[in-house]
Amino acid sequence: MEFVSGMVVISSAGHDCGRWFAVTGADGRYVYIADGKERKLASPKRKNPKHICKTGLTVDVTAMTDKGLRRALNALCKQSIAEESEKLV
């Protein structure tokens, strides 16, 4: 499983299950994720790759602030929900 910086993921385990995050980095064993609210870009959460799901979406986190990250993830989440509801109709 290859995780790159800027990839949008959803937590699938832990107390943050179901929340959207952006990958800020990865080493051989862990992926570092941030959402701009609970986990800031300056101190990302270390998470096991088995406990997150890829969404296929990306954001540019290189020059982003925590506020910008929150807004981007919120917009992507709403867009994804709207697309899913259109499929059901």
Explained architecture:
The protein is of the alpha+beta class and 89 residues long. It has one domain (7-88): SH3 type barrels (Roll), CATH 2.30.30. 26% of the residues lie in helices and 29% in strands. It contains one helix and five strands, in the order E-E-E-E-E-H. It has one helix at residues 66-88, and strands at residues 7-11, 20-26, 31-34, 45-47, 52-58. The protein has a five-stranded antiparallel sheet, with helices on one face. Strand 2 and strand 3 (31-34) form a beta hairpin. The longest helix has 23 residues, at 66-88. It is globular and about 40 Å long.
Question: Which helices and strands, and how do they pair?
Answer:
Elements: E1 7-11, E2 20-26, E3 31-34, E4 45-47, E5 52-58, H1 66-88
Antiparallel strand pairs: 1-2, 1-5, 2-3, 3-4
Spell out the key features of this protein.
89 residues, alpha+beta, SH3 type barrels
CATH architecture: Roll
Query: Could you say which overall geometry the principal axes of the C-alpha atoms support?
Result: globular
Number of helices: 1
Query: How far apart, in Å, are the first and last alpha carbons?
Result: 34 Å
- CATH overall fold name: SH3 type barrels
- CATH class category name: Mainly Beta
What are the secondary-structure elements, in order, as H or E?
Answer: EEEEEH
Tell me the Rg in angstroms. Answer: 13 Å
Strand content range: 25-35%
**Uncertain segments of ≥5 residues (pLDDT<50)?**
none
Number of strands: 5
